[in-house]
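Quick one - inputs below.
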Amino acid sequence: MNWLVQNVGLVGELLLVHLALSVPAIILSFVIAIPIGYLAHRQRWARGVLLTLCGVLYAIPSLALFIALPAITGFGIRSPLNLVVALTLYGIAVMVRTAADAFDAVSPDTRLAATAVGYSAAGRFWAVELPLAGPVLIAGLRVVIVSTVSLVTVGAVIGVQSLGSLFTDGFQRGIVAEIVTGIVATMLLALVLDALSVVAGRLLLPWARRAAPGRRSSAQPVAVEAGEPA
Amino acid sequence: MIEFRGVTKQYPDGTVAVGGVDLIVPPRTTTVLVGTSGSGKTTLLRMINRMVDPSQGAVLIDGTDVATVDPVRLRRSIGYVMQNSGLLPHRTVLDNVMTVPLLNGTRRQSARARAMELLETVGLDASLAQKYPAQLSGGQQQRVGVARGLAADPNILLMDEPFGAVDPLVRQELQQELRRLQRELGKTVVFVTHDIDEAFLLGDQVVLLRTGGKVVQSGTPAEFLASPADDFVSGFVGADRGRRRLRLEEVDGQRVVVDEDGRPAGVLEP
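Output:
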């Protein structure tokens, strides 16, 4: 505890740096994975290829990717940008499959109805398919959040500062409290971001909770079901 | 008026869904397409709003080939009601009904007023407007579906087995409501069903289709009963079974109409 009290400034600073590395990667991978997932959902041939590619991508060891990536991107190995690109790639790898599943989960009847009442293809995507894919997309986002926040720490090994630096530094100097602080702070950060995504999901998708089977009886009176007005 | 001219739909795998249909749907009447599954009745219906394009022939609305009309604009001008309501689950009842007017560029306020009016027309309480579809019963959802179909005040209303998934009692109620609505609104309704009783109840014109999408017979319900074209028609309308063969019996001084098995069907009015 003493260590934490004396170094609270450092921990706070690293927390912000950690946030600055993970949030852009999370948002970028979420946004990029959605169109790729939609393509995988629409095109049978694309599905196999894309999902396999994502599987392979995720199988690349993170340290190897961090070191190899600068050769492609041209960023320095210790550049935070290098880390953000790598984390975005991992995020995409996780998110694409979920995004494809999310769009698969939209009822074909609903899609057909949207077409029948006169939505254009683009209008249908934005107004019908994307919101209806929302609950599953949010579930995927939560996985990306947790895995990204945790992966950022690996960057400390190649010298990109984050909460992970508390592990590397703690190991080198034999300060257990520093290591524990790093682990706990990383987990707390992941939990907070996860909770934020859940709250955002509830605000953006209010219907998802109300329509969920088995839940409406507590929140909503079922009286509407009883009578069929003449 | 809707006109089918030599319309055929053949899929790449060789399946013929619709095989050379010529048909005229008179304006302001209800035409019911009836047939077993695989008789192409839904395919035929969907050709009217270009959900399906024919491989041969043409569909004309008031003399205009629909193939020359932008499908999205066409669909916004035609009401569509489907089985299981097809409501958007993430939109409230009110927003669902407002969908088409908003797509057509109607201002939100007037679309809203129109939607509330329509909910009343189809017999739904205004308190349901802010509910989500999943919070409604099956019958209520179908009513919302009908309201949405009518929202843009289309001349044509397409109904694809709209009452197929509700229980028999609610179905009868909805059928009667549709008859009332049709008397009030006078739309050109094309209605798909596999239920011949529903077809006879709702149809001014009934079109019976068979596998391969061929018209077996078309005419008024009375014509079907009086002169079925062949055994298939007799079988389908039940004329070959006891149900449609009625005779009179005297019971307690009343003339009771009974079917071939002696089961009473009703009382004959003097």
